[in-house]
């Protein structure tokens, strides 16, 4: 708890508002135009937890790259607290499906990456320690990434994101490659991190249960080019129970939207 | 019902530990026997020096014999000490087989050259002739070593430094790549020694010409491998760094370069090998000092023992340089798994 407070000290009380305003995007592959996002409009209130759900390869991850500012949209605008997003900024941090830790850096130095890039590591070393403690890996500070298990590596990559006190946390299938037991425990961890720190969270997943267990809203996308098919409020309080009949009901609805309810 | 009785389970460890004890004893004895054998072989080598008159006029036969007997004595002492000290025993066990072989080869060499003359002189000098070079021609040999090291270090440092900078620039900047890449393809594969005739009149001194050639030979592999290292860095690393607020300089120095380092070291290793060749040729052709020149000079006087001595020193220096490079690499790339041990 102490460490969580240490992280929160300089953080704003709530995350930033995110507005995706009529965004379309396409890729040029060998001269052919491949549309990926089709007039997507989406608003997230400060501190909201929104899950983006859709078939594999539908363009959800592209939307996240646009929110992160790694690419500019072909048309439309993205706004963070009313300001147009023009490039990457440490207030919007991404946790990718692969931990992508830098293998030549120790765990500690991986977590310190953002503060080092911003040139404030000298005065803010305590934030790295706090972030590592938050994900329960203080004793691995001097380990190298190849010595970690998949779950530990992903926790380090979470710490590397959280140390920047992001206002928007972007999770791109962060648990997709973990074994199912680790995944369940990390889902609970993500919820508690979100509740403590209050950042706006955007989660891309293709796991319906995960979306329902974690998010306040589940936005369902169509096949590529991605359009918003439905925007479902998950009106259950936290901590949630996986066996909640209301979640099962919603799950059935969502699978129906994805055309997969025949086996339910 | 259990398939074993209590007595069986009690017997088994006793029997196996007895067997283990016996095999340990045998293994220990075998290790020690090889140690004593090594001592004996070196004794034979020492005595072979005194066996009969040398066929030629060599002044260090006695010293070689005494040296060999000293080694035999040390080996004997160490083999005996091995009964008490596990550490000494381990050291002797690890080295004894090689020492046996070396002692035997030296003995054959001594007898075949100095004593019976099976191998023609002066092309095959005996061990005492080479020892004589080290004792009597030491100042000139040392001068040559220092001169070679200076030339090699200067050229290698310049070549490695420029190659690294060029490689990173090509890998990073499309514009630099556009201009430098064709040049690299055109000039790089040319053996540096092909420049020799031009270099020696284009440069003010043979020393600067040789430095240039060594730098050229080093620079090409370092450039290409640094470049390929930087080019092969996964985009995911850049994405991560950028979302965390990294500026371009951070991406170069803290992402691209560390990620490319394993490649860079392959380039440095290849460059080192290429530069040795150029060093020796340059010293033979133009520079009036260094081990290459010493070799050339010795050949001119038909003093083959000096050539063998110089070759031995050269091989030690080259091997030492590579060992040093690998030590530096192991330090810097400690995060890598399973690197080759040199």
UniProtKB/TrEMBL annotation, chain A:
<dbReference type="InterPro" id="IPR003593">
    <property type="entry name" value="AAA+_ATPase"/>
</dbReference>
<dbReference type="InterPro" id="IPR003439">
    <property type="entry name" value="ABC_transporter-like_ATP-bd"/>
</dbReference>
<keyword id="KW-0067">ATP-binding</keyword>
<protein>
    <submittedName>
        <fullName>ABC transporter ATP-binding protein</fullName>
    </submittedName>
</protein>
<keyword id="KW-0547">Nucleotide-binding</keyword>
<dbReference type="GO" id="GO:0005524">
    <property type="term" value="F:ATP binding"/>
</dbReference>
<comment type="function">
    <text>Involved in beta-(1--&gt;2)glucan export. Transmembrane domains (TMD) form a pore in the inner membrane and the ATP-binding domain (NBD) is responsible for energy generation.</text>
</comment>
<comment type="similarity">
    <text>Belongs to the ABC transporter superfamily.</text>
</comment>
<dbReference type="InterPro" id="IPR050166">
    <property type="entry name" value="ABC_transporter_ATP-bind"/>
</dbReference>
<keyword id="KW-1278">Translocase</keyword>
<dbReference type="InterPro" id="IPR017871">
    <property type="entry name" value="ABC_transporter-like_CS"/>
</dbReference>
<dbReference type="InterPro" id="IPR027417">
    <property type="entry name" value="P-loop_NTPase"/>
</dbReference>
<keyword id="KW-0813">Transport</keyword>
<keyword id="KW-1003">Cell membrane</keyword>
<dbReference type="Pfam" id="PF00005">
    <property type="entry name" value="ABC_tran"/>
</dbReference>
<keyword id="KW-0472">Membrane</keyword>
<feature type="domain" description="ABC transporter">
    <location>
        <begin position="18"/>
        <end position="248"/>
    </location>
</feature>
<dbReference type="GO" id="GO:0016887">
    <property type="term" value="F:ATP hydrolysis activity"/>
</dbReference>
UniProtKB/TrEMBL annotation, chain B:
<keyword id="KW-0812">Transmembrane</keyword>
<feature type="transmembrane region" description="Helical">
    <location>
        <begin position="209"/>
        <end position="230"/>
    </location>
</feature>
<keyword id="KW-0472">Membrane</keyword>
<feature type="domain" description="ABC transmembrane type-1">
    <location>
        <begin position="145"/>
        <end position="326"/>
    </location>
</feature>
<feature type="transmembrane region" description="Helical">
    <location>
        <begin position="301"/>
        <end position="326"/>
    </location>
</feature>
<feature type="transmembrane region" description="Helical">
    <location>
        <begin position="251"/>
        <end position="281"/>
    </location>
</feature>
<dbReference type="GO" id="GO:0005886">
    <property type="term" value="C:plasma membrane"/>
</dbReference>
<feature type="transmembrane region" description="Helical">
    <location>
        <begin position="153"/>
        <end position="172"/>
    </location>
</feature>
<keyword id="KW-0813">Transport</keyword>
<dbReference type="GO" id="GO:0055085">
    <property type="term" value="P:transmembrane transport"/>
</dbReference>
<feature type="transmembrane region" description="Helical">
    <location>
        <begin position="64"/>
        <end position="84"/>
    </location>
</feature>
<feature type="transmembrane region" description="Helical">
    <location>
        <begin position="96"/>
        <end position="118"/>
    </location>
</feature>
<dbReference type="InterPro" id="IPR000515">
    <property type="entry name" value="MetI-like"/>
</dbReference>
<comment type="similarity">
    <text>Belongs to the binding-protein-dependent transport system permease family.</text>
</comment>
<feature type="transmembrane region" description="Helical">
    <location>
        <begin position="184"/>
        <end position="203"/>
    </location>
</feature>
<feature type="transmembrane region" description="Helical">
    <location>
        <begin position="33"/>
        <end position="52"/>
    </location>
</feature>
<keyword id="KW-1003">Cell membrane</keyword>
<protein>
    <submittedName>
        <fullName>ABC transporter permease subunit</fullName>
    </submittedName>
</protein>
<keyword id="KW-1133">Transmembrane helix</keyword>
<dbReference type="Pfam" id="PF00528">
    <property type="entry name" value="BPD_transp_1"/>
</dbReference>
<dbReference type="InterPro" id="IPR035906">
    <property type="entry name" value="MetI-like_sf"/>
</dbReference>
